[in-house]
Amino acid sequence: MKQIIKLQEPNSLLQHRTQQFSNFDNLSNATKEELKQNILLEQGHICCYCMKRIPEKSFPYMKVEHYKCQEHFQDLQLDYRNLLGACTGNEGQPKKLQTCDTQKANKNLTISPLNTNPSCETLFKFNSEGEMSSIYDDEAVEKQINTVLNLNMQSLKDARKEVYYIVQERVRAESKRTKKDKPAFVKFLNQELKLWQSKTEGKFKPYCLVAIYYLSKKLRSN
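Request: output the structure for the sequence above.
Response:
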């Protein structure tokens, strides 16, 4: 779950909200499209929960997620800070294969990609098998990872495992190359970290937090 810094909301959404009887369901197609493009821009084209690339190969290319669900928080249905971009979460597949917003439905979350104190990025750790867990062994966070969002579904673990392996191999190779030149190795780690923290052509790398976690841990030990 990568931290999201919200941009200024689209003017068309603001205008829609001022209209009588406005709600999310009667947004025009043009406003919905502008909303989606704004969300993709601020999220760097990755899902707000699993960090999968958006758009996916399947259609529709993304879901507008209400962090606080419409059923229980109707007053927030047009609040821009409550609107996030999620992958399709294997919609239409058996429940055990669904993830993210599709799995979450109307359940509540306490961890949020918008949190800054603490940042959501500081709440998770990843192992070499791609498993995501609470860095503080927090039962509530574990439940949200595994039950509410199903973020340890096997295909997600496999995708994160691949990122972990790629970064680990690059670090091992550089460690051998620099050998006892610790400053050079630390410089390499910082460069790699910056690469994974940054957007390329407006896009984050999918599952980037796996690499960020691994490289940050390496830096702390050096």
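The CA atoms of residues 171 and 181 lie 14 Å apart.
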